[in-house]
Design a protein that fits this description.
The protein is α/β, with parallel strands linked by helices. The chain has three helices and eight strands, in the order ββαβββββαβα. A hairpin with a 4-residue loop joins β6 and β7. The termini are far apart.
């Protein structure tokens, strides 16, 4: 299977980092949570991703309005002090190409020796009852970034 994604890393070292991946879901909650982390931790952009699996988006740097750099639909940020890395996804995946893209995400970050992966998502309140009565379980974690290793 031919790769449909171009990964451009400016910094290669991600050994033992935790990767956060937002899903495009209700209210963009997970993307906004990642934006908050990137901004409040002054995370550094370490890569850009171009993939046919996403609707292309380009705009101003959302974290530095005085910057002359542009922001795209998929970028990678890291915090050395917290040992976290974020694959910030700003547009939905195209269903036809999503599986291949996600396989490439796994392959790419496995090669980078990522320790853990956390996928962030959100749902409608009325779905909670359905989830609680099914075999699927969701886990709620509230943790302070200051307490992360």
């Amino acid at each position: 299977m031919e790769k449909s994604t171009i990964w451009k890393f400016f910094d290669e070292c991600l050994d033992d980092y935790t990767l956060l991946v937002p899903s495009v879901a209700v209210g963009n909650v997970s993307q906004l949570a990642c934006d908050l982390l990137i901004s409040s931790l002054s995370m550094v952009k370490i890569g850009s991703v171009y993939t046919t699996a996403q609707i292309p988006v380009i705009g101003y740097d959302p974290y530095n309005l005085k910057s002359e750099n542009l922001s795209t639909s998929c970028e990678i940020y890291k915090s050395d002090t917290k040992k976290i890395c974020i694959l910030q996804i700003r547009s939905p995946l195209i269903y036809k190409y999503a599986k291949q893209f996600l396989e490439e995400v796994i392959e790419t970050f496995n090669k980078k020796n990522i320790k853990d992966v956390i996928i962030l998502t959100s749902s409608y309140a009325h779905e909670k009852k359905h989830i609680l009565t099914s075999s699927f379980r969701r886990r709620f974690c509230i943790a302070s970034i200051q307490n992360m290793p």
